[in-house]
Amino acid sequence: MRLGVLVSGAGTNLGAILEAQARGELGGGEVVVVVSNRPGVTALERAGAAAVATAVVDHRAFPTRALFEEQLIAALAAHGVELVVLAGFMRVLTPHFLRAYPDRVVNIHPALLPAFPGVDAQRQAWEHGVKMTGATVHFVDEGTDSGPIIAQVAVPIHDDDTVESLRARILAQEHLLYPRVLRALCEGRVSRDGRRVRVRP
Ligand code: GRF
After folding, report:
1. Fewer C-beta within 10 Å: the chain N or C terminus?
2. In this structure, which residue's CA is closest to atom 5 in ligand 1?
3. How far apart are CA 197 and CA 32, in angstroms?
4. Model pLDDT, residue 175
5. Residue 184's Cα: distance from chain center in Å?
6. What is the mean pLDDT of the chain?
7. Last-in-domain residue among 44, 78, 102
């Protein structure tokens, strides 16, 4: 399975995915290209260090979202990408993009969806005062963090947590969860019936 990873920033999830691949733990999955909408981000350096092809498609260079997405699709298609992996990609994708990869776009979100969708989910959970939050890997649909849920991990919030300490605890779990789910996808162990997604062991 040829994976294309879309990033916008630090790319620590990308790093975890690349490490899993290097250990042979991606079930035959291979990251063939990393595409960023922002130039100069650390995620691109991580890809370069792992000798993975990179592309920058700067959204600011395109007058419309459709033209931006056309270029994204072209960058992925040029590498024969079969599964699109969002890893800290900070642009919302429209149906235009999703039609090019039906049921083939996944995302990781730092909360137990459907709680706390959207930006800064860790802060939302911390401010709300919930005692348990986590991370979710889901298929991407037209909404914001609303697609069918593939897998989740719970993370406790402690009384003495700051947003930053919580963010770090969740991120450590993301780094375990995302490669595990990608491996299941690459091994064909994920099936879907409407919103209900099943991951076979
Ligand atoms: C992660 O918390 C992820 O859940 C969210 O954006 C963050 C990306 O971090 N979608 P990184 O770029 O992988 O370090």
Report:
1. C
2. 88
3. 26
4. 98
5. 15
6. 97
7. 102
**CA 88 to ligand 1 centroid distance, Å:** 4
On whether both 71 and 112 belong to a single domain, the answer is: no
End of a domain among 49, 82, 102? 102
Does 191 lie in the same domain as 110?
A: yes
| Count of domains for the chain | 2
Domain with residue 6: its CATH number is 3.40.50.170
Give the tens place of pLDDT for each residue, 151-178.
999 999 999 999 999 999 999 999 999 9
63: Cα within 13 Å, side-chain hemisphere: 0
User: Using a 6 Å CB cutoff, which residues line ligand 1?
Assistant: 9-14, 87-88, 108-110, 171, 174
Which domain covers residue 3, as residue numbers? 1-102
Active site residue 109: yes
116-137: pLDDT as tens digits: 999 999 999 999 999 999 999 9
pLDDT number for residue 117: 98
In contact, 14 and 48? CB cutoff 8 Å: no
3-state class (DSSP) for residue 185: helix
